[in-house]
Amino acid sequence: MPVHDPATSRAVLIAVDDYVPAEAPGPTPGVAGDVEEMSALLTDPALLGLTPEHCTVLRNPPDAAAVLDTVYEAAAAATGAFILYIVGYTLAAPRHPDLYFALPGSSESRLYRALRYPDVAALVRDTGRAADRIIILDYCYDGEVPAPHSTGPAALEAVAGASVLAASAKDAKSWGPSGQRMTALTGALVRTARSGVPDSGDDLDLAALHHHLGRDLASRQLPAPRLWPGQGERRIVLLRNTRAARPAAARGDGGRADGQAGAQTGTAPGAASAERAGQGPERERAAAESDASDRTYNDNLPKVPEGQDAALTMAPAALADWTAQLRTSGWPQVADEVLAGVAARGVPPNVALLLVVLRMAGRTAEADQAEAIVLMRAPDHFAEIALSLVQSGYREECARLLAQAARRPVDQIRRLARALTARGGKPQAALLFAEATGHAPDAAALEPLLELLPDLGAAHEVGPILAEATTHWQEGRVLTLAEQLEAGGVERCSYALYARAAQLAAGNWPPDRFAALLRRMSAHGAQDEIDTLLGAAEKAVGPFPSLTAYLATDLASADLSALAYRLLSHAVPAYSDVELVALSSYLEAGRQRDLAVHAYATAALSRPPSATVGYIDVLRRHREAAHADKLVLGVLNGRPGHIVGLLQALRSAERVEDAERVVRLATQAPVGVAAAVARELWESGAEQDAARVLDVLAGRPLVELASALVALAVSGSTAALLDAQLRARSPQEYIDAVSVLRTARRDEEADLLFAALGRGAPQQVCAAVLALTQAGRHQDAASLLDSFAAQAPPIEAVEAMALLAESRQGAQAAGELLISALATRPDPSMILGTLRRVRASDQTDRYLEHLGASMPPADLVVLASNLATRGCDAEADLILTRAARRDDFTQLRAAFHEAGRHAQAYHLTERHGEY
């Protein structure tokens, strides 16, 4: 609608600058300029065009009566627009909540001399027949703002039937900026009227004017004005828009108004086009296509009402407040149109926060309406809004938005999901897909949606993404989604969802169906999901032997025996003997005798040996002697030490044959179990039983016996229990077994077997050393010699030296063996004594002299030191006497000093001096 006819319109301008605030040095500057500029504005033919006699100015009126008379006369004469403008101070009166405008001579204690605003407002409301009634209040409080004014309802300025534009300044400095001709609000109003508001049509209505004033004042860090539209939903036009007739091209801003260019992107006017120009033809073309796509969607979307474009850049909280004021002031349709326009065309992050603000304020209907419009926006914009909610921590609101989006046609859902995925929102795309499946009536309807899954990742990745996206769902919905995916042919994607609903599936599905699911998972290697589901099943069937038996039977029937055994291992320990018998009966009925034996063995592991005896008797009474033996083996496998108590219980009951049978069964157990049993028997004092087990074990291949050595090595006292039996093995068998173990990376077993060879007979060791040397494995040969030399009895060590010396390749090895025995053992005198008995003494002396002449200094220091400290002084002296003649005497002497063997160093020096 156009501006009102100036001939039928009236204005009253009231300014009080003769009132001096309590803390001000003098009258506030700017008030006089305010009325002059406002008078010029309203009488300007290009803006409103009032004649001077229709625009009354009251400056410093003497009393309230003079004001009220003038207002009454002008309001009574107006049939077009009536405009009341007041600029000055209001008085803060805590005991009087009404607004009082200060007049000359008034004060806080003399309110009777002030202008009471409700009296003026009543005249404006009730007088005359003006089509539009507009009040502009440019004021500041004198003193601290009382609570009713600052925090009370916003009804102090509001007037029914009139539109009120008011300043909210609370201090004179911000209200009247230093050095300015006008106060803040009036200055902004005059600037806006003179320059016009772009894109607001031919006329300026109060709403557009209010928003433009807000931006102007905010840019100057001044208080924002407030607007109470009290005249229904009509646009209230105040002035003509001086910018309306200006062509967009002439503005030089690409058709966008000052302050608007770049507002949605946060860039300065022209910056977006400059940035796009530098992106090259391809990116510019892509941007143009995106813009065209956006326009296709936006053309059918709501727009903000004419003149309300400023709402697009308002902060969400401020926009929510303003629309609430519109509703309370009787303009609900305008509020709806503004929210719809912003939801359709606002900046995505702001729109996201607007949804949250409305929802948190309890304005659910408005939030739902805005949400419905967001769903119609371009996919890229929708994705930005959804992800903005997530990034701001409002996942619940995002989930609500996606749930509504999932009700749209499938082709639109696909576009939305792909837009989310392209922006890194895979979890949100997954949730959109999951929600959409709930609206698919059958597998055929689901098929188009399944095309989205490859965008989320590989099949094994999609399931976890869907499971994470639906963490807020009830288990029933998750289970339904898993079943839908499986029915749709993407079974691998469903496993993580089944695991999310594990408790529900385990507690409600029949055992055969549950086992079949685990079988399919096993075929795809989904071990984590299997563990989760089986854990839930263990809880679900635990108290009920029948359910446990049915599920274990179905697992075994599905070729998942390992899972059946695991199920029993977790469930059985909690069962009583009566429940155990019942479980066994159910398993027997299902032809699962091995599982029944495992159940008894599992129970026996946590119960005294007498219980095991009882379980053996139960199985034998059922003519299941073979299963009784399996029970014993199962118990020994899980608890080797149980054999000690079991044998004691049987022998105490004089069941000798049963005890002997248990020992025989122990020898038939896997070699590691048998060795562990032998160790337990040995350590409990049952050495005869242990020896019987070990004698049988000794016949196993060396590769298997290596596992027995590991079991025996747990206790150092039994580490060599098999040595006597192992001395009969050939050296080549040792070498081959160690090679096999190292190839299989069973290094611990290889090391223990090699150490056992080092404890072997001299013939074994010598033959192995020579074989290793011939095979080029010199390090292994040296290691074997060192091990043998460190522990062999003196007679065996000397025997090995003799055997090596007799062979063509063994002379050096014999010498190394002697050196190791003399240099590291605590009994070198015994080695030398034995050597002198089997060989000529002078040969031994000559060999020692040879060592003194040829050994490296470091090794010679170790050898001479050990001989000297172990009672072999003569031999040490013999070595040093020969060493004194070496060319590297100086280096040798230094080596003795560095090792702390100073006496021997001096002795070496004396011998050297003799030469």
TrEMBL record:
* Protein name as catalogued: Caspase domain-containing protein
Stretches of Low complexity bias are at 258-272
Q: Which NCBIfam families match?
A: caspase_w_EACC1
Origin species, per record, is Actinocrinis puniceicyclus
Region described as Disordered: 245-306
Q: Where is the composition biased (Basic and acidic residues)?
A: 281-297
